[in-house]
Amino acid sequence: MARIxxxxxxxxxxxxxxxxxxxxxxxxxxxxxxxxxxxxxxFKQPDLVILDCSMPELSGIEVLRQIRASVRAYAxxxxxxxxxxxxxxxxxAVRAGADDYLRKPFDPDQxxxxxxxxLESNAR
Length: 124
Hints:
The protein is an alpha/beta fold and 124 residues long. It has one domain: 3-Layer(aba) Sandwich (Rossmann fold), CATH 3.40.50.2300. Helix content is 45%, strand content 19%. Helix 3 links the parallel strand 3 and strand 4. Helix 1 crosses helix 5. The chain is globular and about 30 Å long.
């Protein structure tokens, strides 16, 4: 069981992610914008974070940069889950510190597999 935080302003995406991950025994907390993510991560210390690139208040890339600059949260694995489809967007996310990048629409089973692979590699 892992504690996972998702930040996405699309309620349907959050519901799909939550259902898929909770079915595998994970605990999922959700935020609808990027503004509070860093504070929540530092306080709750989740095992993994899922970020949308395009969110109100603060983009997922900006949040990712804050996480990587944080002494307490910098090593937290981050999966970008986004509708941005270009290779350039993926490269920007990876350079900012994303551990993985999954495009919407997505297969919930693929999401679960990627999340569990990130959790496993971080546990080593």
